[in-house]
Design brief:
Chains A, B: GO terms for molecular function: (R)-citramalate synthase activity; 2-isopropylmalate synthase activity. The structure is a homodimer. Chain A contains 19 helices and 16 strands. By secondary structure, chain A is of the alpha/beta class.
């Protein structure tokens, strides 16, 4: 029986099959980096045979360094009645430059007849030829036996033949998939045990959550001898999602004592799960096990008085082991560890005894209570901390803004902003158009600043996300805006919260520019001629 | 081994310990009626010893008729070093008028020492006395052994003594609680098996979801001989929630073939779960197993082409068994077969040879190229298809809108919208404020429509997401707005794409209202008096 378990993350491939999940290439690269930090062993980046976005992803990661993870590309076995060597899909896997190829094939006789409509014999050849071809190209090959459990229940002999073929062709892993998510832990346990008696190749499990048993089925497979678990962060995936790695990893490591990732990596689990939720622009359930904001939150009076005596009375693990926090009543302590980490990163003297530290923690708690969430907005957090500990020069302050959007039938919409700000003590009035209201505000504000800081022309808004905060009366109707800004070398994230999307955007925009100006040198305002050249005549 | 399983619902008691869940007495009564229709066997209404709201609940249900469920009141064993007869908490249970009393006591020696701080012997007496007193009052008594599994792991002998005492005192059920949610199915299975060898009283399971194993643990207990499952609809509850009955009931009935509720009642499961989610004012995850909106939703092109051949290729049960339905999502990852399925769902004559079909497919491709993504916006897709195939009555058309947002330093931001639309041929001018620009537009547009369609006042915007489309030059700077709108029974999703967030929101809003008006009957415009009552005097 294995004592360690390898984690195969398919957030970037199967995860994007989930409703409402759509990731740009840039999003995928950010997530891959985070997954690598978390310490997963395989990152499935996409299906290069299915779309050009995934091809671009593999092109871009080809020369990137990953510390822990191998990148794997996904595809299917060759088409029926053809050669593996000529198969476009298989060749895309080779061309992707990924070290590892993961291919799926059919194990359920019903699917062979119904879905791909070929003979059982030809299906076996498709598996054998495909694995062998990829092995001949020097790749590590993971064979995903799609619908293995349904296939085994229907025709065990044939299901076993399919994985035997993958083994004969030299597959490095045989992963048993409960593709429809309909199996129970007792079935998974019995079938994995039977498989382990038939094949010598290392076995993995790929479970789905259709019966709310994705995590349990993954654990049952490991307990029966599987050495690899495939899943997604936060359980993203088609229908009810894939097995949730954010729960599986701590269950394996803390409860079943398998060697999975390092203790330090495990302590980043909450932060990684929340970061990926922000990037994917999903609503993370507060009650998500281990990593949710309420996972260790106590409301009941009896529970609270008991945990004050001893936390283990109502907590199954120490929350810090997964980077989460206990929360009692309305006190919002979440994020404090992030604050600490950030403060250390900035070399601030962040000591719990200092008045400044107490004040900034109070302030952050209050902002979090209002709906701010600094997980995805490092730059806004840095500004807050620098302001509290070092003081920040107040470069500009708002006097007022007006924003007008006008549309008539069959005409393009028009957005205009008027901004009145004090920059270095001087009141400046600017107006600008934009392709949207936030862009108009951005343009108007920049106009006021660019004469002092000409190089802010180079930065641009690269992402913008809005989330309605629907939790409770306190935040009803509020929106959180998350903004990403980029210059040639860096990008940074800021946020704003308000019941008004324009105001929330304004706050995020102001932080974005304040951050951009950190450490930049002010120049003397341009003379009239230069102003004209810069289009600043109307301030 | 039992062949039937009794369902004990604690949505109204343990469920309300969940963060963000707060139910009025009226809410609780509505939910109790729904639970009775669903066919649960016990409804735990609250803790009359802990608050007056729960006392009121029991007063109000006392004379109500329930067809399937018995109402039960919750409380604890008597206080240490006192008499059961004089215990206020126990007497509240008797006075509540509930047929069944559910009391919890300590099984974990650590808790006896730490939380209630008494002797192990006194704790046994507390259990015995309390159960016996309630039995003497003619009540059915369910004894909840709190922290039973943690207690058993720490001191099996003492844990067994505690439930032996409950049995000796005449308890009708002994329910083993995994209060902290930290146990694994393999542990639950072994411990329930051991308990069944020690007691003859019927045994139940009460699991929590802290390891994302609440459902699996409940099933493991039943498979080891438990005849009662306690849980909550949608898994509401403290921290990560209680075991989710919305998944447990179909798993027990459809997968493990236990007799739980009738087939007809099971077909109401989706509707009951969504109804309770509405009453509790929670955001129901789309990917919730069995009952979620995406539980049987298909996105991948390969999956979609297979389910067209046979739905069981990628569905573990027939969705209608739990009152849910198959949905096909249209997305970049899918081919046109997804549109075909949607058209079939709407009974449209969608034949590839028809000119209409070719046109609408071209149109959808074109919209997708612009950044539309219909997978999350069923209602917008339905409107497109209905318009192309059936024609849709043009109820209202935009003449113009103006939207103004104004902010001065230290003052609240103000949003105003002016809308000029033609409704049934009549030009209507309305203006409204809002807590944000989209809300202001929504209010202004609704004002124009509500006199013809008064019941659109009941619908409300329930979610709103914005995404910048940063993929390609063609869509640079564009934003996609996804909007969810809800009335009491349904919710629908619409979208809009534009380089201007306000315009994109407008498109999504217009689709949302067009969809809401499908099949609604126009009423004659209200007279002046009615208009004043409705606040429509300014059109």
């Amino acid at each position: 029986m294995p004592t360690s378990v390898k984690i195969f993350d398919t957030t970037l491939r199967d995860g994007t099959q989930g409703e409402g999940i759509s990731l740009s290439v840039e999003d995928k690269i950010k997530i891959a980096r985070k997954l690598d930090e978390l310490g997963v062993h395989y990152i499935e980046g996409g299906w290069p045979g299915s779309n050009s976005k995934d091809i671009e992803f593999f092109d871009r990661v080809r020369d990137m360094k990953f510390t822990n993870a191998k990148i794997t590309a996904f595809g299917s076995t060759r088409r029926k009645n053809s050669n593996a060597e000529d198969d476009i899909n298989l060749n895309r896997l080779v061309e992707s430059g990924a070290q590892v190829a993961t291919i799926f094939g059919k194990s359920w006789d019903f699917h062979v007849h119904t879905a791909i409509q070929t003979s059982l014999e030809e299906n076996l050849s498709m598996i054998y030829d495909s694995v062998r071809y990829l092995k001949s190209k020097g790749l590590e090959v993971i064979y995903d036996a799609e619908h293995f459990f349904d296939g085994y229940k229907n025709n065990a002999e044939y299901a076993l033949q399919t994985i035997q073929k993958a083994q004969d062709a030299g597959a490095d892993w045989i992963v048993l998939c409960d593709t429809n998510g309909g199996s129970l832990p007792s079935e998974i346990s019995a079938i994995v045990t039977a498989v382990k008696q038939h094949v010598t190749t290392a076995v993995g499990i790929h479970a789905h959550n259709d019966c709310e048993l994705g995590v349990a089925n993954s654990l049952a497979a490991v307990q029966a001898g599987a050495g690899q678990v495939q899943g997604t962060i936060n359980g993203y995936g088609e229908r009810c999602g894939n097995a949730n790695l954010s729960s599986i990893i701590p269950n394996l490591q803390l409860k079943l004592k398998y060697d999975v990732i390092s203790d330090e990596q495990l302590r980043s689990l909450t932060q990684v799960s929340r970061y990926i939720s922000e990037i994917a622009n999903t609503h993370m359930p507060v009650n998500q096990p281990y990593v949710g904001n309420a996972a260790f939150a106590h409301k009941g009076g009896i529970h609270v008085s008991a945990i004050l005596k001893d936390a283990s009375t109502y907590e199954h693990i120490i929350p810090e082991l997964v980077g989460n926090k206990q929360r009692v009543l309305v006190s919002e302590l979440a994020g404090q560890s992030n604050v600490l980490v950030k403060a250390q990163e900035l070399n601030l003297d962040f000591n719990n005894e200092h008045q400044k530290t107490k004040e900034i923690i109070e302030k952050i708690k209050d902002l979090e209570h209002q709906g701010y969430q600094f997980e995805g907005a490092d730059a806004s957090l840095e500004l807050l901390l620098r302001e509290a500990f070092e003081g920040l020069e107040e470069i500009f302050t708002l006097e007022s803004f007006k924003m007008l959007v006008e549309k008539t039938a069959n005409h393009a919409v028009v957005s205009e902003a008027i901004v009145k700000v004090k920059v270095h003590g001087e009141t400046i009035y600017t107006a600008a158009e934009g392709n949207g209201p936030v862009n108009a505000l951005d343009n108007a504000l920049r106009k006021a600043l660019v004469q002092y800081y000409p190089d802010i022309q180079q930065i641009h808004l690269s992402d913008y996300k809005v989330r309605v905060l629907d939790e409770k009366d306190a935040t009803a109707g509020k929106v959180r805006v998350l903004m990403e800004t980029t210059d040639f070398n860096n990008s940074w994230n800021t946020l704003g919260v308000s019941s008004n999307i324009i105001e929330a955007s304004w706050y995020a925009l102001v932080d974005s520019l304040r951050y951009a100006l950190l450490g930049r040198t002010r120049v003397e305002p341009a003379n009239k001629e230069q102003q004209e050249r810069l289009g600043l005549v109307n301030h």
